[in-house]
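#lab-general

N.A. 3:47 PM
ok so I finally got the sequence cleaned up, no stray characters, all 201 residues accounted for. can someone with queue access submit it? mine expired

B.Y. 3:52 PM
send it over

N.A. 3:53 PM
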Amino acid sequence: MSLPSIAQDIKLVKPDKSGGIPLMQALNNRTSSREYDNRKLTDEQLSGLLWAAWGINRPEEGKHTAPSSNNKQEMQVYVSLESGLYLYVPESHLLKQIHNRDIRKSTGKQDFVEIAAVNLVFVSDLIKAGVTNPEKAGPEALNTSAINTGFMAQNVYLYCASEKLACVVRGWMDTPELAKAMELAPHQRIIVSQTVGYPKK
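B.Y. 4:20 PM
back already:
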C-alpha cells in the first residue's frame, strides 16, 4: 500500500462486509503475536480492520460494530502508521491525519511496535463520556471505556484471525509520552494499544 508522505487525510476504500472466514473458525484461530515483519497492509485490509474495530454498521442510527455504554460513543481510534498519526472517522470512513511523524515506537515499550505496519491506540473522550471535571478524573472514570475497548479489540482480533494477520493488545507503554506524541487534550485518555501487521516468517 502506498500512503502519502505529505500531511493529508486518507479516504479508505469501502470495506468488504461479505468476506472472511466463519465466526467459529475465527475464534479458533484467534491468537496474540509479538513477532512481525515490516510489510504494509493493503488498502483493503486497513479499511476492513478499522471498520471491524469501530465502523458504522447501522448508518440510519449511527451505531457501531462494537457496543458503547449508554450510547455515549466516547471512544476514538487513533492509527499510527509509518506515514504519520491518524484519527479514524467512522462516519465518513476516513483517516484524518493529526501529523506526519512516525510515532510507532512511542506506542509501546516492545521492539516490535516500530516494525509492525499498524499500531491502534484506543482513546476515551471523557467529555463525551459525560465525566464531570475530566482533567481531574481518576481511573474509575475509564471503567466503561475500558469495557468498550475490550469489545473493539476483540473485533480486531477476529478480523486479523480471518485475514491471517498478527495482532496483540498491549498496556505496557509510557502513557504520558505517548499522549504528548499524539497531541492529545487533557480530556482524552489512552486505554490500550493494539499492534497489527503481517506475522514474521
